[in-house]
Every structure is written in C-alpha cells, then in structure tokens.
Amino acid sequence: GENVEQHPSTLSVQEGDSAVIKCTYSDSASNYFPWYKQELGKGPQLIIDIRSNVGEKKDQRIAVTLNKTAKHFSLHITETQPEDSAVYFCAASMNTGFQKLVFGTGTRLLVSP
Amino acid sequence: DGGITQSPKYLFRKEGQNVTLSCEQNLNHDAMYWYRQDPGQGLRLIYYSQIVNDFQKGDIAEGYSVSREKKESFPLTVTSAQKNPTAFYLCASSMRGGDTGELFFGEGSRLTVL
C-alpha cells in the first residue's frame, strides 16, 4: 500500500522567513496530493492540493510543487506570519471517487515574531 | 452553518468499558471517515463509509466498530478489545466523486482510558 514520509517533524522560523516541508510517497499510482493545516485543538483543514497532471500550484503565500518522477512533493510558505504556526500534514491518494488518503506524520511549524 | 459535529470533546473511560463517539454532518456528503491521531504518527484510517448501510475497514480497525444507518451519522464504538484506545479521534466527510477531494473534519474527540 501507499506510504507517505514527511520531513521535518518540527520547523522553527522567524516571521517573514520562508518555510518548506517535504513529503515522499511510494505508490506511483497516487495522483492526488493535498496539504492540511491543523491548529491546536481543531481538526485539520485543507489549505492547498495538487493533482499529478500539474507540477506547481500557488495560492497567495503558499505553493505546492510535485515531482512525479522522484515521487516528491513540497509545501512552500513565504513571508511566514505567527498565525501560520500549526501542524501541517501532507497526504496522497488514488482518486477513486472518494478520498482514502494516506497521511504523513506531520510537521509542527513555529513562527516566532 | 454546515459542518461536522463530534461529541463528546473529552471522554474518560475505565479499562474494559466500551465507549461510543458521535459524528454528525449536515453537508449532505455521502462518504464519512474515522481517523485516529497519535503524537508523531499522523492520521490513521480506522473505518470509512461511502454510502448508507455500507462501511469498510481502514488500516487500524481492530478493536473498533461503526454503523451507518443514516447519511448524516457515523458513530464509532471503541471496544474493550482495543488495546491502546487513548488517542485523539477525528471524524471527516467528503463528497463522493466530483472534482474536489477535500475532507471536512470535525474538531475531534479526545479519549483517555484511566
């Protein structure tokens, strides 16, 4: 089955710096790669996703890149702000009509003012 | 407001007791899911249901049971057979099919076994 590895497990940056979180997946049949943000005491919330027919996608300060050959995908957050502090999860799935996602182990991002 | 409601938010249980976690959604989603979250292990799928009266085991179903008698409800029972039940449990739902793959999560239920 699919296995998703995520690094780093913790990431500390200064406000205004960029943050990069990386994931690798094992199943070449996976074609959907979302990123979720989980704030303390809350459920995860989708922040951006990418499908395998696209190499990069941006939404304001966040972007995701996908390298299908290497089976890598990454989340990039620019101009980080304290409210970006949260746990971020990557995930992968074969889009079979419902989402049986396999999640990474999460990255705790701390943005210091 | 549309969303997913999980209850209770915190639950304490003695060893050997079964406990049921509630999950209700008013998003008219066909698919519903239960995930377990442990520190450093991400989210692991316990059970999922694509349609009423049907559900499938996820990766860690042992010691858990579910039912899906109504589209909006997907309760999870943590049985006494679950060897390490203390965890944060998340319920989610999604549209079945369509272009969006987004999972909508509830705010979770934290179960502690005393």
**Greatest interface by residues involved:** A-B, 25 and 27 residues
CA-based shape of chain B: globular
Distance between the termini of chain A: 41 Å
Per DSSP, the total helix count of chain B is 0
Count the DSSP helices of chain A.
0
Helix fraction of chain B by DSSP (H/I, runs of at least 4): under 10%
Oligomer: heterodimer
Report the mean per-residue pLDDT of chain A as an integer.
93
- The chain-level structural class of chain A is mainly beta
> What would you report as the Rg of chain B, rounded to the nearest angstrom?
13 Å
Radius of gyration of chain A using CA atoms only = 13 Å
Order of helices and strands of chain B: EEEEEEEEEEE
Q: Classify the beta-strand content of chain A into a percent band.
A: over 45%
The shape of chain A is: globular
Mean pLDDT of chain B: 91
What's the helix and strand layout?
The complex is a heterodimer of chains A (113) and B (114).
Chain A lengths: L3 E4 L2 E5 L4 E7 L6 E7 L6 E7 L4 E4 L2 E6 L4 E6 L8 E7 L9 E2 L3 E6 L1
Parallel strand pairs in A: 2-11
Antiparallel strand pairs in A: 1-3, 3-8, 4-5, 4-9, 6-7, 7-8, 9-10, 9-11
Chain B lengths: L3 E4 L2 E4 L5 E7 L5 E7 L5 E9 L2 E4 L6 E3 L9 E3 L8 E8 L9 E2 L3 E5 L1
Parallel strand pairs in B: 2-11
Antiparallel strand pairs in B: 1-3, 3-8, 4-5, 4-9, 5-6, 7-8, 9-10, 9-11
